[in-house]
Amino acid sequence: MMTVDPITLEVVCEGLISIVREMRASIIRASYSPAIYELDDFSCAMFNATAEMVAQSDDHPGHVIPMPWSVRCAMEDFEGDIDPGDIIVLNDSYRGGTHLNDVTLLFPVFEGDELVLFPAVRSHWADVGGMTPGSYSGLATTIFQEGLRIPPIKLYERGQPNRAVMALIESNMRLPEHRIGDLKAMVGACRIAEQRLRALFEKYTRTMVIECVRLNLDRCEARMRERISELPDGTYEFEDYLEYYDDGRFDPVLMRLALSIAGDEVTADFAGSNAQVPGVVNSSLAVAGAGVFVALKATLDPGGAVNQGVFRPIHLKAPEASIVDVKPDAPAGAHGEVRKRAVSVMLGCLSQIVPEKVSGDLSGTSFPNSMGGQDRRRDRGYVFLEAPAGGNGGFAGGDGSSAFMNVDFGNIRSIHTAEQLETEMPVMVERSVLRTDSAGAGRTRGGLGLTREIRLLDGEAVYSVQSDRAVIPPFGVLGGTSAAPVRVAIGVDGKETDLKVPGKATGRTIRQGESIIMQSAGGGGYGDPMERDPEQVAADVEVGYVTAEAAKEFYGVALDREGKVDEMATRTVREVRRKSLAGLHISADKGSPYSGIRGRQRRQRLAPVTARKHDLEDGDLIELIGSHAAPLRAWVLYDKGVPPDVAPLDDFARRVLGLDDASTVHLRRLPTIMRPGQRVT
Fold first, then answer.
1. % helix / strand / coil in the chain, to the nearest 5?
2. 3-state SS assignment for residue 468
């Protein structure tokens, strides 16, 4: 084993990161798709010959963290059959991919006959075929409706392009000239990386570069293990939901996580999560694992490097053919929603261990909106794609950021500039403003969502949206309230009509003069809203973040006609609000608390007299709040067999909420847009 001095180690490792950055710059300058050169919806990385990620830069965590799975799959398929000059392309969601729009290019670099490193690019292509322009469908029932699925295949063989593969790709996608242009940009970036790698080998030798890679992975692993070892051993559990519709009936599917800490290792086990369904709420374990990693890394070590060494102490388990380990031929386009819900359940688990380090829940959905049509001015087709950012959760040190991409999205931007959109497509940006009253209330409030309105100026277009958190909102922690959920509406002649299925649409016709109104969710609050400085609340009202009515309802702050704090009225209102949170005795519930179409929705049994006393109707969505930071969600179930003022809880709920026989549980009603089993009208 060779000796490496610390200076050389740093220079070589930073040199690899610099190569990745140059790849990024090349793609931005050469790509055809606005999703890439405007929104930065792509990622670059470097892998070694054993499929370990050794370098990345300012990239999308939802891209780069699952990428090692794709590299391993490609190497398995072509074991012993990878030659100099080969280039491999794939987008298979079942094999380390995300959704089919994210196309991955692998470029093996050889020294002689030895495979040394793999520069790789994963780019979001604005369209990969399928049933709708943009290849997004909130109501798809099979992956075949989501676009062209590409297993690992050779785009180039020994330096020669595989023209049949090129033709197949070009023939199955809208705007084929853009797709081929983006593909060539990806190839060009990898060729630049190859040149820079050869220069690095020439300066330091291939052996030295590989040894530096090995040492860097080992030291990053040691750093992550040290952070994990600071946490108390134990198993911490949480659950949350994704919004699915079964033949038009609202049927939320359950994601459950048990986070086990043993010394310097972590195991994330999704046992108990729903089986996969024929709807857009499934994804791969690579994607769910990315949510686990993002939440853990951001909580324990936000400043450290991201590479395979950091992944080594983290182990993933999941039931096969489940919403977190999807198998053919279920839809897999919900990678953003599954990843974000994995972040949510991780926050719920971590809030039981280090509540001071977590935040309220993030906005909780990638919220992709796509629209395609024909631009008659230019006699060409177009595909519009945006994912309006929501709020981040409040945290101990301050309010969550507003209309800002969540941590699992990295540095990508979520909306186009108005100038670019209006130049390239027959649309007008009518509004792009923060969404009043969308943030979860708390001692530190969550960030606000965004209201974004796009009007179609000419012809007809086809619109699709695939989102979550349109019914079950992002949660607050430590007494903070939930944020406003996603809302999408169509504007016609000054009137707004909500989508038939909240937050989901497939191929909805948009006519000239109509507009799409996209409202992203806010972030959950942190801490008791009654502890927020009344002057901060008044300032939020003054700038339009919070209405005066919400200030009184959620923060207990009364304002006079001039918008100033009425101190006496505020003290009175806050005292009343503190006493109004429903507190019930608990009893053991030995039966299953779950029911529904698939039997996986938590129902909180209550005596009808108790429910009515607290203004709760049968089927209302509520939060159960205990001594731990994060709440559990459930739907009220009237049960005359339950004693008054008692809430039966199963053992899982008691563990999650931190309750024992002598405890009380508090209930908080949430806006109920849809009830489980309710049919869309």
1. 30, 25, 45
2. coil
Tell me the β-bridge partners of 275. Answer: 322
Dihedral angle sign, alpha carbons of residues 157, 160, 165, 166: positive
Handedness of CA 161, 101, 185, 118 (dihedral sign): negative
Whether the predicted pLDDT of 408 surpasses 90: no
> Distance between CA atoms of 348 and 239, rounded to whole angstroms?
8
The 10 Å Cβ neighbour count of residue 662 is 7
CB 637 within 8 Å of CB 621: no
pLDDT in tens, 296-314: 999 999 999 999 999 999 9
CB neighbour list of residue 79: distance below 8 Å, 6 or more residues apart? none
As a whole-number percent, the residues of the chain with pLDDT over 90 amount to 89
Q: Give residue 1's pLDDT.
A: 65
Dihedral (CA of 303, 309, 312, 317) sign = positive
Task: Measure CA of the first residue to CA of the last residue in the chain; give whole Å.
Answer: 69
Taking a C-beta distance cutoff of 8 angstroms, is the pair 96, 284 a contact? yes
- Residue 159 structure tokens: 């330096």
Predicted confidence (pLDDT) at residue 320 exceeds the cutoff of 90? yes
CA-based R_g, the chain, Å: 26
Number of C-beta neighbours around residue 208 at 10 A:
17
Domains of the chain: 6-222 (no CATH), 359-532 (no CATH), 534-580 (no CATH), 582-669 (2.40.40.20)
Number of H helices, E strands in the chain: 16, 30
> Is 168 strand, coil or helix?
helix
Is-contact 417 38, C-beta < 8 A?
A: yes
Three-state SS at 125: coil
* CA trace torsion 34, 36, 39, 41 (10° rounding): 140
pLDDT at 599: 73
> Residue 285 — pLDDT band, cuts 50, 70, 90?
very high
Contact at 8 Å (CB) between 641 and 278?
A: no
- Over range 396-408, report the average pLDDT: 94
Does residue 329 have a cis peptide bond before it, meaning omega lies within 30 degrees of 0?
yes
**Can you say whether the dihedral through the CA atoms of 422, 424, 425, 426 is positive or negative?**
positive
CB of 65 closer than 8 Å to CB of 43: no
In angstroms, rounded to a whole number, what is the distance separating the alpha carbons of residues 99 and 91? 7
pLDDT reported for residue 47: 97
Chain-centre distance for alpha carbon 638: 34
Does residue 601 contact residue 595 with C-beta atoms inside 8 Å?
yes
- Exposure on the CB side of residue 488, measured as CA atoms within 13 A: 27
Q: In angstroms, rounded to a whole number, what is the distance separating the alpha carbons of residues 437 and 549?
A: 10
Query: How does residue 148 score in pLDDT terms, banded at 50, 70 and 90?
Result: very high
Structure confidence by residue, pLDDT tens digits, 100-136: 999 999 999 999 889 999 999 999 999 999 999 999 8
* Residue 271 pLDDT greater than 70, yes or no: yes
Element housing 427 (H / E):
strand 427-434
Confidence of residue 180 (pLDDT cuts 50, 70, 90): very high
The reply to whether the predicted model has a pTM over 0.85 is yes
pLDDT at residue 596, as a whole number: 83
**Contact 313/265 with Cβ under 8 angstroms?**
yes
Paired with 463 in beta bridges are 371, 508
| Contacts for 250 with CB less than 8 Å, ≥ 6 apart | 243, 244, 471, 674, 675, 676, 677, 678, 679, 680
Mean pLDDT in residue range 617-623: 97
Q: How confident is the model at residue 90 (pLDDT cuts 50, 70, 90)?
A: very high
Strands 594-595 and 601-606: antiparallel
